[in-house]
Amino acid sequence: MKILKKIIYTLSAAVPTMMFAANGYLINNPLKGVTSIEQLVLNVIKIVEVLMIMATVIYLLLAGLSFVTAKGDPAKISKARSQLLWGMVGAALVLCARIIATTISGTVQGLLG
After folding, report:
1. Are 60 and 87 in contact (CB under 8 A)?
2. Coil, strand, or helix at residue 33?
3. How big is the CA angle at 37 (ends 34 and 43), to the nearest 5 degrees?
4. Residues 25-34: contacts with CB within 8 Å, 24+ apart?
5. Closest CA to 93 of 54, 58, 53
6. Domain map of the chain by residue range?
7. pLDDT, tens digit (0-9, with 9 covering 90-100), for 33-86
């Protein structure tokens, strides 16, 4: 019974597509300007990079808020310093990610010829 359901679902998705293709209808590419997998991956990396920059800024703002709310408590100040340190490390990694990716890509292409 499960196999029959899978066959029906597959045919219900495939038959209209085949009918449109037979009548000369083409499905337009929803990703404007993306014609290869490499371009798609680069676009996804750009989006992730922007999201990581925003997350880093928020984390650094929260670290600053921790400093303000510490009110002189040494334990809380130590925790806030740790947050600030790791926020800066994260910011450095996010900002250097493109350089790291380019270096790795160049190395791989150099090894492959």
Report:
1. yes
2. coil
3. 55
4. none
5. 53
6. 31-112
7. 777 777 777 788 888 889 998 999 999 999 999 999 998 889 999 999 999 999
